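Shift notes (night). Ran (wild Malaysian banana) hypothetical protein while the centrifuge was going.
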Amino acid sequence: MATPIQTKFFPNLLFFLSVALLLTSAVSAYEFRVGGPRGWTKPTGDELENYNHWATKNRFHVGDSLYFKYENDSVLVVDKNAYKECNTTDPQLKFVDGNTTFRFDRHGYFYFISGKPGHCEAGERLIIRVMVHSEVMPGAAPSSQPGGGSANTESGAALKTTTAASVLMAALGSLFAISLFS
Ligand SMILES: *[C@@H]1O[C@H](CO)[C@@H](O)[C@H](O)[C@H]1NC(C)=O
Ligand SMILES: *[C@@H]1O[C@H](CO)[C@@H](O)[C@H](O)[C@H]1NC(C)=O
Ligand SMILES: *[C@@H]1O[C@H](CO)[C@@H](O)[C@H](O)[C@H]1NC(C)=O
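Came back to this:
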């Protein structure tokens, strides 16, 4: 009596858990506020950390985004060489609206510099490494979020959407519905 139920149940269980995990990674997106409350600006020297120190304390995934808040400045997306040399002449992308959201559409490295003369040299530049989804193990997602404390308020990461739990519950609900009717 129990055997036919088990053989039906476990393939379904595995299938729906896989779907749930895929959906979970697809719907969790974070928006990171670059520079915290200061935003994107030429460093004055009294910062707790520079932009790249901040970046190394966070984990970025495809679908996450950076928010740049700035005034009288710009955000250039450049290649590695232009980043190293602070070369602002031929950026891949240029934003000047003061209020820029940049979403990561692939994994790998992204390089950002200021387009204002002297600003990149003074430290207004940022390297982001975006991880591939396969590096995210189930249960590892919370490490994308900052822990408690004022240093993390400064780092300015914000959880944009966490519907992971509800997606998982919905998937489990479907699992039991299909187990009953198949
Ligand atoms: C931006 O530039 C305008 C005009 O030059 C100036 O009035 C304003 O104070 C500047 N803002 C900042 C934050 O530097
Ligand atoms: C800056 O980049 C442009 C375009 O890639 C290049 O032509 C130029 O030589 C570079 N300038 C310097 C100083 O490297
Ligand atoms: C920045 O952009 C967001 C979304 O595009 C918008 O809702 C917000 O009002 C903007 N803020 C400013 C200060 O321009």
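Residues 1-5, 139-155, 159-168 have pLDDT under 50 and may be disordered. The pocket of 2-acetamido-2-deoxy-beta-D-glucopyranose (ligand 2) is lined by residues 85, 87, 89-90 (CB under 6 Å).
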